[in-house]
TrEMBL record:
This is Acetoin utilization protein AcuC. Residues 10-306 form the Histone deacetylase domain. Keywords: Acetoin catabolism. It comes from Arthrobacter stackebrandtii. Pathway: Ketone degradation; acetoin degradation. It comes from the Bacteria. The keyword Metal-binding does not apply.
Length: 382
């Protein structure tokens, strides 16, 4: 998976995958008796064509075979998505990881799965965007639908709007996409506002909560719990697919949100509980953005894997010394001492009251007012 590499100066460093896998291994998560580790495979062109155009797949293959070429019209060879040798195979392998996760749920081999190398939510049907070549989240969702799953809820908590996945299912009432992200006024891709609610054949199938820059754990979790559980329960999916980009962290240099490792762990726990309540625990979780590769990404995604496995790692757990030594020796960086940050993750329930003078509450209410009535919910009280 580390072949997905845009170059040494690109924010999407494959080191974050190496460090995440290493930390999860040292914490014993991958050795839990209920956990199976399966190899991701290179998705076939036919599989990719379930959500991508064949012309686009051919273009990715072409520039990956000859990196002197570029195709900016398809987003290939841009500053965000520079061309590199083997681009097709690398992107298709990340996609294959999420397809394998979907296969595991379809076959009944497992009720839950994680592909922390996935979460490439900016890729469109015919264009690369925002570090994303093939949209593995959309591919997994489509595979579930093609297998007979009637409805899928997609929950995206990356700091950036999950625009590619939303667009692919824009007019499909079988898929509910919910994106909780920093407002497009201050962050790429500049989209995902409250009135973006899906196509004419699927009004309410797209839900967007555009958070003000600077939103911290309290506001982020308040917004999540004011929108996500109510709509997912009303929609009644058979499976939840989630994207856990951890670039909303306060130390991430590409965004302007202010969450903690602790807050992101809390969100993962909430999605786990929602999956248990609504769809018998059936849940596929993916990674996504996240550019603080030592202190944030490995901890957040190790927590995610442990939660999916049903064995959450306590926040006061010591980071294994073997992993800290590896980080120092291989990357020359200082790793954190604990799996948490002693952050205050208390959040105020929406039912306690709504403050119209608060920017966070205004954006939450904007989303609730436009979407909740479509599900028979009251935007003020539900």
């Amino acid at each position: 998976m580390s072949a997905y590499n845009f170059g040494p100066n690109h924010p999407m460093s494959p080191k974050r995958l190496d460090l995440t896998a290493g930390l999860a291994r040292e914490l014993g998560i991958l050795a839990l008796p209920q956990v199976s580790v399966l190899e991701a495979y290179v998705a076939s062109d036919d599989e990719l064509a379930s959500v991508h155009t064949r012309d686009y797949v051919a273009a990715v293959r072409r520039v990956g075979e000859d990196p002197s070429l570029s195709d900016p019209a398809r987003g290939l060879g841009t500053e965000d998505d520079p061309v590199f040798a083997g681009m097709h195979e690398a992107g298709a392998r990340l996609a294959g990881g999420s397809l394998r996760a979907a296969e595991s749920l379809i076959s009944g081999a497992t009720p839950r799965a994680v592909n922390f190398g996935g979460g490439m939510h900016h890729a469109f049907a015919d264009k690369a965007s925002g570090f994303c070549i093939y949209n593995d989240t959309a591919l997994a969702i489509q595979k579930l639908l093609d297998s007979g799953v009637s409805k899928v809820a997609y929950i995206d908590i990356d700091a950036h709007h999950g625009d590619g996945t939303e667009k692919i299912f824009w007019n499909d009432p079988r898929v509910l996409t919910i994106s909780l992200h920093e407002t497009g006024i201050s962050l790429f891709p500049g989209t995902g506002f409250a009135n973006d609610i899906g196509g004419p054949g699927a009004a309410g199938s797209a839900v967007n909560v555009a958070l003000p820059a600077g939103t911290s754990d309290a506001g982020w979790l308040r917004a999540f719990h004011a929108v996500v559980p109510q709509l997912v329960e009303a929609f009644g999916p058979d499976v939840i697919v989630s994207q856990h980009g951890c670039d909303s962290h306060r130390d991430d240099e590409l965004t302007h949100l202010n969450t903690s490792v602790d807050g992101q762990r809390e969100a993962a726990l909430s999605i786990a509980a929602l999956a248990d309540k609504v769809c018998g625990g059936r849940w596929i979780a993916t990674g996504g953005g996240g550019y603080n590769i030592v202190s944030v990404v490995p901890r957040v995604w190790s927590h995610l894997m442990a939660i999916v496995a049903g064995r959450p790692v306590p926040l006061r757990t010591a980071v294994p010394e073997t992993w800290r030594t590896y980080v120092a020796e291989k990357y020359g960086m200082v790793a954190p001492l604990l799996m948490g940050e002693d952050a205050d993750t208390w959040w105020r329930s929406w039912e306690v009251g709504y403050n119209p003078s608060d920017a966070l509450d205004r954006t939450v209410m904007a989303t609730r007012k436009v979407v909740f009535p479509l599900y028979g919910l009251d935007p003020w009280f539900d």
